[in-house]
Fold this sequence. Notes:
By secondary structure, this protein is mostly helical.
Amino acid sequence: MDRSTLIQDFLSELEQAEAALLTWGVVDGAFTHDEVVERARIFLEQRQDGEMRPTELIQHLQDRKLLFDLPGGASRLWRTRMAEGIRLIARLRQMFRFEEWRSGPTLVSDYRFALRPRSYPKRDVTFSAAMQAWESAGVLTAERRKGIVALLTRPGVSTLAGFQVRAAERVFRDLAIAQCRGMIVTVGTGSGKTLAFYLPAMIHIAGMIEKDLKYTKALALYPRNELLKDQFAEAYREARRLDDLLQASGKPRLTIGAFFGPTPKKAGEQEVGEKWAKGGRRVCMSVYKVRIARMHWRNDMAPFGHRKGARATRM
């Protein structure tokens, strides 16, 4: 049996055992060291795998950050990433200045837990089939076709998942109407949610770019700095795939900026100015306010009554 499959199956067995308590709201349960070793021994015997030792199987899970050895007083306690993650979320507390966090009120009053087999969407939609679906839906123009080819023509990518095709169609369709609507994409980690958003977004932005008119065309908000770093790098790589197409049309490159760090409490220069080089075009974002410097709002996108051609001011 493939080693990765073996590790994943053993992880699933541990999670199923943990689920018996988690479904009843008990988040502090854990395996002892002896229990984990014994489970690993029985698992390997049932799979008739004589090449891997129980301790080696456990070490593989630890190396992949799927199983954690936690302090538990006189004994060692073990939880999978799933169980420890749920425990940390369920035990979250509010912390105020000059107050002890252990006595603070909890942030999660209750939760519901459901364990399902791991699954990933199949990537079985060819580019030609995706193009045909978008064309049938009336959202594929000649300009968008060129952009899609530029973004998707790369080594290792030959098909799309069905949800990516449907999401792109929905975004393209919604961009064509004046009504403001939302869309939620829910699939497992690593399944391609980013592409489902950036594909239609960047294609649409490429069509909006004008040579002598610069303004912010999209904002992407991320709840964690580490996620922002990963997604920013991916978005930058995707944007560069459109460079040749835009250059051939006499348009400037698609540019991306990021505000990395704790969310500022105010959108003033003192709070966010040090994050940016002086004199550069920049976008500063906070949860409640947006500040644009040296960019212009289009008359049909003017926020809070800004007039056409007016420089966006501090809000």
